[in-house]
Write a structure and sequence with these properties.
about 190 residues, mainly beta, Immunoglobulin-like, 5-stranded antiparallel β-sheet, 1 helix, globular
Length: about 190
């Protein structure tokens, strides 16, 4: 009985130490755990603009298809003009823009280079992310824009998920986070 009590006490201490060691307010997914990742390519390199452009694709390196309806992505940004309503635009998607959903979420306390995020989701009609890489694998391209109703400007470089890359080539991005069933599976949320 004494041995069991000592083991439980040690286990409780270990759990307490692990909780204390965990970073507060930072979500980071271990790379490749779910076999899914987000790629982004720069579409606009202007620091000050009235539109935030983002072009994505979700790549699936697991052996099985994954329903897009189980996934959401978050684009983290700084909204310098919160009084001007935000608008989401899907310009084109291989899975059809009618199958792309979006909502803006204002953070209760600002994070580094973000006070808002755009959460992109998918309807059941979007289908699945096929396994593998290449022209017919993954989600295919999803072209999006964020702007204000009255076209107020953003300072794009003050946005966590913004990338500026003149190559315009798809690359893995850890600043656009990916969730499956609400659990972070790819990327790192901005620090708070």
């Amino acid at each position: 009985m004494m041995v069991a009590a000592k083991r439980l006490a040690r286990l409780g201490l270990l759990v307490a130490l692990l909780v204390l060691a965990a970073p507060v307010g930072v979500g980071t997914a271990a790379p490749g755990d779910a076999g899914l990742r987000v790629q982004d390519r720069s579409h606009d390199n202007e620091s000050v603009d009235n539109t935030l452009y983002a072009l994505y694709q979700i790549i699936n390196t697991s052996p099985a298809p994954v329903p897009l309806s189980s996934l959401t992505m978050r684009y983290w940004f700084t909204n310098q003009t919160p009084a001007d309503r935000l608008v989401f635009e899907c310009d084109w998607a291989q899975i059809n823009c009618a199958n792309v959903t979006a909502k803006f979420v204002v953070l209760p306390s600002p994070a580094a280079k973000a006070n808002t995020y755009l959460e992109i989701g998918f309807t059941a009609a979007a289908g699945s992310v096929a396994p593998g890489e290449g022209r017919n694998q993954g989600s295919g391209e999803i072209q999006t824009r964020i702007h204000h109703a009255n076209w107020s400007t953003f300072i794009a470089t003050d946005s966590y998920s913004f990338i500026s890359d003149e190559s315009f080539v798809y690359k893995d991005t850890s600043t656009v986070t990916l969730y499956q069933g609400g659990t972070l599976i790819w990327g790192a949320e901005p620090t708070r």
